[in-house]
Amino acid sequence: MTHLASVHRASEQLHVTFSDGEREAFHHLWLRDNCPCDRCRDPAAGERLLDTIELPADLSPTEVAVDEGLVLDWPDGHRSVLPAGWLWEHSQAGYRAAGRREQLVLWNAATIATDPPHISLEEIDADEVGLRRMLRMIRDRGFAIVHDVPTRPDAVIELAERIAFVQESNFGRSFEVVSKPDPNNLAYTSHRLYSHTDVPNRHSAVNLQLLHCLENTARGGESILVDGFAAARRLEAADADAFDLLRTVEVPWRFRDADTEIHNRFPVIRTDARGELVEIRLNTGIMAPLDASPELVGPFYAALRRFGRILRDPELEHHFRMEPGQCQVFDNQRVLHARAGFDPSSGRRHLQGCYVDKDDALGRLRTLERALAGREQLPA
Ligand code: OGA
Ligand code: ZN
Ligand code: ZN
Question: Using CA positions, which residue lies closest to atom 3 of ligand 1?
Answer without folding.
Answer: 339
